[in-house]
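Exercise 7. Predict the structure of Putative acyl-coenzyme A thioesterase 13-like from Davidia involucrata.
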Amino acid sequence: IRGSIKVNTVQRGRISCLLSVKPALTNIYGGMHGGAVAAVADFISIACARTVVGEGKELFLGELSISYLSAAPRNVELMVDGSVIRSGRNLTVIKVEFKLKESARLVFTSRATFYNMPVASL
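Solution. The predicted structure, encoded as tokens:
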């Protein structure tokens, strides 16, 4: 999946990428597989959270919800934008939107909640 993602911009609290829906990422109906959507959403969410949560804290995924609004057909490009909704001492909430590059139509949306935990020192 990482080979299908091209990072456009990384800013504090925001990441923008381009995702190519290759045949390996599709289901039997020719649309992007739901598991691949979840994997990309998780990957982008973690990267986005890392822009605001210091390396001195571990991130634990507490919740990942995805709305599958429409199909993303094989061989299209998707704009994937992740942004921090809220980041506090203990929680960070990220939203990720998947839009067709050609029409900017929203096809998937995701929200992830991370727990920020200090790294244990032994």
